Amino acid sequence: MKIIAPASLPVFVVLALATAGCGSDFTSTSSSDVGTRPAAQTTDSGGTDRVVMRSLAFTPAIVHAKVGQRIMWTNEDRAPHNVTYVSGAKFTSSRPVLGPGARFSIKLTQSGTIHYFCSIHPWMTATIVVSQ
Ligand SMILES: [Cu+2]
Q: How far is the CA of 46 from the centre of ligand 1 (A)?
């Protein structure tokens, strides 16, 4: 069964604020996946960068993108996940539970560095670096 929630679903997870102070180690993971990947590999013709939730992690953990592009997350785990805003250019977090196979996307409207995490698994942190 697949349920598509309306984009207007107001999801503000207060927990994000409680853990926002622990962001200093955001860049310490998954360096093996970031440095060697050509920029074009994660960007399709529509200007969408894709991030997967897999093995209880966001991959890639750091995405470099441009204003106007979209980011799309796909849950490839058996566990539920979510995309919860922490800091940087504001976006509306996903609904609280993205089940296996579920997708969520946002459009990047301003430059800056976005930090987000999965509030179900708070160690799942990741970053989007948005440039003009
Ligand atoms: Cu999760």
A: 27
